Amino acid sequence: MQPRVLSLKLRLTRYAAPTLALVALASCGDTARYPLEAGTGPDPQLPAPVKRLIPTVKVAPVKRWTGTATPVPADDLRVVAFARDLDHPRWLYVLPNGDVLVAETNAPPRPKEEANGLRARVMASMMEKAGAATPSADRITLLRDADGDGVAEVRTQFLSGLYSPFGMALVGDRFYVANADALVSFPYREGDTRISAPPKFIANLPGGINHHWTKSLVASPDGSRLYVGVGSNSNVAENGMEAELNRAAIVAVNPEDGSTRLYATGLRNPVGMAWEPTRQSLWVVVNERDELGSDLVPDYLTQVREGGFYGWPYSYYGQHVDERVSPQDPQKVATAIKPDYALGAHTASLGLAFGTSATLPARYRNGAFIGQHGSWNRDPPSGYKVVYVPFVDGKPQGMPLPVLDGFLDVDGNAQGRPVGVAIDKTGSLLVADDVGNAIWRVTAKVAASPAVPASSP
Fold first, then answer.
1. Cys-Cys link to 178, which of 65, 167, 320, 447 (CB 3.0-4.6 A)?
2. What is the bridge-based pairing of β-strands 269-276 and 315-316?
């Protein structure tokens, strides 16, 4: 037998007519009993799951930035629009010459049988309300700040005709793109503003239902391996484990021959990946499961252990068994690794970049910047901000520091939603905002003073 759970779709169709279900979803659910901070850090509080027929649904309606409005930076930072009027910018990659690539992308069309279900219609309604129902532009755009004023004045279509592209990586003279269904590569020469060559197929990536469609990508420091983050095809295996082949995992790819292997598993939706600079270890941010209440389950940041299993779908945050999954697998649960650092329940933490820049204030060096896209399954909402997790000796320590806030206005509307984050060639932080259709550039409020040489005697 394969693990299955009583899905939201089955619960709603069993107990309510579709119209009533949609109304109920808009108005019902539990309220968080703990502050978000209780579910943050190396040892988060994990209260008992909340069991409800109708899960919490609280979506921030879209009301995009107007005029010159921007997110609100921390007191020692400033923010400007590096680029505006993009089409659902999700992910960023900085080339060695300083050019910034942005994947303008969204989910591919769902299979007809999946799109017609009640759950799919409910989710589509939520996504439209949240500004996430736009068709995918299927392109990568190049942005260049040639005059160094912090704003991109050059914008070109770097690559087009892709299939829900997301992750990007440059290794030598090959530029790799992780589409929703395949890893491909293109020739690249420094300074190129457009690539017209056809793609070279490298490896298939799991597609299908695409409950989680993004495929993040990072190269090993020596370029010999590529690592792809592949999310699950469900919340907690309600479609059966046969639909989860090579999913909820980080997949290692040999770019020379396209061979693949599972590098780490049990990761419900691993998105941002980056190498921690002091120890050169791979870290990832992971979106955890929904429908256990506003206080469960925290998304997390963790070091990736080769061959490690992180619990999904059988357990969460280590060995806390998810009773919705049946049959269980006690042997797998016993091996589940507890993540290193919780990021709060339902924050939808996606972007990850390590800060080592001397141009940012000292407190933002040697830790991790994280883009939190924002909740739909928590009341009150969580996420909708960019935070910084301090690191000491290669490990997270202390509570997150605010970097950018104000994505939600005073009425709870989403002016923007942060996704990918990256450090540009100057050491500034770039943030992709897929609802605000902008790239934000974050710098020190007061520029760091250059070192003054000691006077001669």
1. 167
2. unpaired
Q: Residue for token digits 């017209």?
A: 196
Phi, psi values for residue 21, rounded to 5°: -65, -40
Please provide the average confidence, as pLDDT, over all residues in the chain. 90
What's the pLDDT at 412?
97
Residue in the structure block whose two tokens are 């589409």 = 179
For helices 18-27 and 8-15, give the axis angle rounded to 10 degrees: 120
- Whether residue 386 contacts residue 403, with contact meaning beta carbons closer than 8 Å, is answered with yes
Per-residue pLDDT tens over the stretch 291-326:
999 999 999 999 999 999 999 999 999 999 999 999
**Ramachandran assignment for 364, one of left (phi > 0), alpha (psi -120 to 50 degrees), beta (any other):** alpha
SS (H, E, C) 30-75: CCCCCCHHHHEECCCCCCCCCCCCCCCCCCCCECCCCCCCCCEECC
Whether 123 has a pLDDT exceeding 70, the answer reads no
Residue 331: phi and psi, rounded to 5, are -65, -40
- The string of DSSP codes covering 330-356 is HHHHHHPPPPSEEEEET--EEEEEEE-
Query: What single-letter amino acid sits at 400?
Result: P
Q: Which helix (H) or strand (E) holds 395?
A: strand 395-396
Distance of CA 213 to the CA centre of its chain: 11
Fold (topology level) of 8-444 = Neuraminidase (2.120.10)
Q: Domain residues of the chain, as ranges?
A: 8-444
| Angle formed by the axes of helices 118-129 and 18-27, nearest 10° | 40
Say how far apart CA 414 and CA 131 lie, in whole Å: 9
Q: Does an H or E element contain 218, and which?
A: strand 215-219
Residue corresponding to tokens 């797998």:
332
Contact 362, 341 (CB under 8 A): no
Using left for φ > 0, alpha for ψ between -120 and 50, and beta otherwise, residue 30 falls in beta
CB atoms within 10 A of CB 148: 8
Whether residue 61 has a cis bond before it, omega within 30° of 0 = no
CA 340 to CA 350: how far, in whole Å?
16
Contact yes or no for 423/430 (Cβ under 8 A) = yes
Q: pTM of the prediction?
A: 0.91
CA dihedral for 185, 188, 193, 195, sign (positive or negative): negative
